[in-house]
Predict the 3D structure of the following.
Amino acid sequence: MRISTFEGATLEEALARVKAALGDDALVLSTRERKRWWNQRAVIVVTAGVGVKPSKGRGKGFDEETLARVFAHRRTDDGRETRVPAEPASAAVASPPASRPAAPPHRAPPPRSRTEEIPGEALFLGVGVSRERARDLARRWIFDYPESKRQSPDLLASLAGRLLGQDLRCVPPAELTIAGSWALVGTAGAGKTSLAVKLALWTKGQGGSARLVTRDNRRLNARAELFGYARLIGVPCSVETRGVAGATTWIDTAAFGFDEDGEMVDLERTTKGSRVALVLDARCRLDEILRSVERAERLVPVALAFTHLDLCSRIGVIYDVMRATRMPLLAASVEGSLSGPLGLWDQREAGRRIVGWGGDLVPSQEGRPRRPLRVEAILGAEK
């Protein structure tokens, strides 16, 4: 709308000027009085508008046909919908010069599918690491090591073990000989009793003073069994959790389940004042192990221990659990009997053991897969 201002001595004079300038279609927007000087008569000021305001420097405003072409489904003031067909493309469109041929359309490479395997991923899947962790390790495998080393059969297992070990933490073996008490907790059949005896025997073998305590009052003959093991290895055993000065005490606790809360209250009393290590059965699936970890959170464990490694088909579950919990590894035990070896590792050795346990990772010089390392060789046991 074009808006203008008109003045007159009276209202009639101002409206006459509006009509003369804008015509009969003019619309009065406002009227007011205004004095030019303090001693002069007031004049009447009328503001009026009419029609469509022409755009500056761009010709007249858009007509209905142009608006309908730009906005194909535009409705007019009377409610009708305008549908003006688009004009055909002009044949006089200039083609690119002959000296500069048109460049082919850019085609971005197709995105990598989430299921597409990353180079090196099969290496970590082969040792039992979950697919999500294996993909993360494969990306680091590509960026951390040059292709010449990744393709070397002699360096393959060593580099993979080093990469795994970077994400793992282990309890230094020297801490196990310091006087104090460790409470071993876990589900039924996890191997707490056998692990406690092995750790006591190892502590004694390192020249330390070891002691066993049985607090398992649920399993039949549990106390008699631990007392018998204690006599066999020559360490004292009792049912009291009070520590002995200068001795490392290993406490065998009752198993916990997933239904009753009362058993967890009893375990909180038993483990009070002791460092708690959660014993996990490596034969279980990852979701089952993580369920045990979640159940034991109220006991505030500070370390993890894995048992039954000889029967574990996916040793990489150790890596997955330790990455998920961020807790250090206390020990790794093979077999449920006392004759099975015990592994106390550092970070690099833990990664190397997991890779070595994975089996046929590196082809031999003759093209046949190498045999998996034997249990005794993996855990460093003496023949």
